[in-house]
Design a protein that fits this description.
By secondary structure, this protein is of the alpha/beta class. It is built from 26 helices and eight strands. About 30% of the residues are buried. About 10% of the residues have low confidence.
């Protein structure tokens, strides 16, 4: 039996034999998905839970509250729990024993299918509230839930019943797979080539029909690409590539009677004049590269065409008037100091958890914050973390574009940024950045900041207490429910921050009325309205960042202090670590100031490098 384990969970399975040849094991597992599982772990109330999902079936197995002394008997725990669940699904003991015997002993490998990892992550997210109890009753409930799902979904029945077990199949390594495509795709390619060669001869009355035909042919290729998933992308990423390809090839290129064999397919800048954003077209570029590679492997696109298309795409979206310089370019400053860090691996599970918690907290508190600023906040409050700017840049890059429930990492105005999910449109992001200009940078202490990782959290204050008092006295909400309704205000006004106060208030009133809460009199409603109006400015902490005029003057004072002391003082270091000062400002400031020798300037740069703090660039 193959157990394909995520990187963070490898240590949990260290007592079991690793596969000798990962690629051969991958081929064997792909050929025998019934005997292959993906595994990871997650935490509930600080207790580690180990999760498995079968590669051939949506069958989830959870081992609750696993401690280090349990690692050597994981296989037995897994087999016991799997047997328990399969019994509940209607299998006999003999069938279960046959499956475990035929699957064989555990062999540990890295994950081999990103889509299955995504399914496992989603399954954990969906079932997490049911997991982590002290007894086994929660697992029985989970097995019952799976049994009901099997009854409701015939596709699961086909893969879960083991009465007629397939024999182990021989896996075919990737390099042994036959190259070339199939006749259907080749037929589509021939038609698209013909249309491209006869573009100038298409009659005006045939325009609509030709556009529709190009779209139909494109769709055959796109669906084949999605079905093959040659890079084993996650379901979310694959869906994004599909939507970008359909948008560009069918809604842009086809309407100009262009095909994948013409120059229009690599013109990513023309759509910018018609409302497409740079980020959207960059996503199109990424999707096209993978799509072209797949078509080449299928024999639909020649090696020369592939090379030419890749070369053309490389020079798209690089005009200086529209190029967005990003955080990873800005980190050249840091890589100048200590380039070997770039080769270090990413972080352990605890560090990953800290980073994700800070990202969620910063998104909920600030709305938008640059990754560089977030890094300095994290390091200021967690100096013990093994997180240098290069490795963190790799982490942000690895998570860029992921749609987490509480934050997204993407680029805004040239900076890699952590973004609240409510700010999903670029115009909203730019509006928020404009609103933040000149406002103070609010930085609570570590304990207070991390409370914001929960989207409903609100600091206790006079406005909060007055609003909760109004809920009790004017709306007759029980005291124990006031926290819920205060949290609902924060979620509503932050998630819909671009709407007017009146519209959000109306939504809140409808929700409260649906729960049976009303006002006895217009005066009571007016008192509640006044308490709500006083509460909302404190809730919308999205705008509480930026620099005040005194803080900007302080930046000049920092430069003067560095020049006067010909080096970094403790006060200057404190300003940098508090994320209120950019190291690059010091370098630029000292470069153009008289009174410092080249040796002194170099010494200052060396001192900055020792801080291991990135620049905003």
């Amino acid at each position: 039996m193959y157990i394909n384990v995520t990187a963070k969970a490898q240590s949990v399975f260290r007592f079991y034999p690793q596969v000798a040849d990962p690629e051969a094991a991958k081929a064997q597992a792909l050929a025998n998905p019934l005997y292959s599982w993906h595994a990871t772990y997650f935490s509930v109330q600080h207790h580690r839970q180990v999760a498995f999902i079968n590669d051939a079936a949506d069958l989830l197995v959870i081992l609750p509250n696993v401690y280090s002394h349990d690692y050597r008997r994981l296989q037995k725990l897994f087999e016991d729990q799997l047997s328990d669940q399969l019994h509940r699904l209607g299998l006999t003991s003999r069938q279960i024993h046959q499956y475990l015997k035929q699957a064989g002993p555990w062999q540990i490998n890295r994950t081999i299918n990103r889509q299955i990892v995504g399914n496992l992550t989603q399954a954990i997210r969906d079932n997490k509230p049911l997991i982590g109890g002290q007894g086994r009753e929660t697992l029985a409930g989970l097995a019952q839930q799976i049994r009901q799902a099997v009854k409701a979904d015939n596709s699961l029945v086909e893969t879960v019943i083991f009465s007629d077990l397939p024999a182990w199949q021989k896996g075919i390594a990737k390099e042994q797979q036959a190259a070339g495509g199939n006749r259907r795709l080749q037929n589509v390619a021939n038609q698209l080539r013909y249309l491209e060669d006869h573009r100038s001869k298409i009659k005006e009355e045939d325009y609509d029909k030709t556009v529709a035909r190009i779209g139909e042919l494109n769709q055959v290729l796109i669906k084949a690409f999605v079905a093959a998933n040659p890079d084993e992308l996650s379901a979310k990423t694959l869906h994004r590539h599909q939507s970008r390809l359909e948008f560009f090839l069918n809604s842009i290129v086809a309407y100009q009677l262009g095909t994948i064999y013409g120059p229009l397919v690599t013109d990513l800048e023309e759509p910018l004049a018609h409302g497409a954003t740079i980020n959207e077209m960059r996503q199109v570029r990424t999707a096209l590269k993978k799509f072209f590679q797949y078509l080449n492997e299928q024999g639909v696109l020649s090696d020369d065409d592939l090379q030419n298309d890749k070369e053309e795409l490389r020079y798209q979206l690089v005009d200086q008037s529209m190029e967005e310089h990003n955080i990873w370019d800005n980190l050249d400053f840091a890589s100048f100091f200590n380039p070997p860090q770039l080769t270090l691996p990413l972080f352990d599970a605890d560090t990953e958890q800290v980073l994700a918690s800070y990202c969620a907290a910063c998104a909920n508190l600030y709305g938008v914050i640059s990754c560089d600023q977030a890094y300095r906040i994290i390091m200021k409050q967690n100096p013990q973390l093994p997180v240098g700017p290069h490795r963190l840049a790799d982490w942000f890059e690895a998570h860029r574009g992921d749609q987490a429930t509480s934050f997204t990492i993407d680029e805004i105005g040239g900076d890699g940024s952590i973004i609240h999910p409510a700010i999903y449109r670029q115009d909203l992001q730019q509006r928020l950045l404009t609103d933040q200009l000149g406002l103070p940078f609010y930085l609570p202490n570590k304990e207070q900041l991390l409370k914001y990782r929960f989207s409903a959290y609100q600091e206790d204050g006079l406005a909060v207490r007055k609003y909760q008092q109004s809920l009790v006295e004017d709306v007759h909400v029980p005291q124990e429910e006031t926290l819920k309704w205060t949290a609902r205000v924060r979620r509503l006004f932050n998630d819909q921050f671009n709407r007017s106060f009146t519209d959000n208030q109306a939504d809140l009133e409808r929700e409260m009325a649906a729960e049976g809460y009303t006002w006895d009199s217009p005066a009571a409603r007016q008192r509640w309205h006044a308490a709500l109006a006083a509460l909302v400015p404190g809730l919308r902490l999205f705008v509480n960042r930026g620099l005040t005029l005194p803080e900007r003057e302080q930046r000049l004072a920092v430069i003067e202090e560095v020049k006067r002391h010909k080096g970094l003082t403790p006060a200057v270091v404190a300003e940098i670590k508090a994320a209120r000062f950019d190291p690059l400002d010091i370098i630029i400031g000292t470069t153009f100031l008289d009174g410092l020798t080249e040796e002194e300037k170099t010494a200052i740069v060396d001192q900055l490098s020792a801080l291991d703090i990135p620049t905003l660039g």
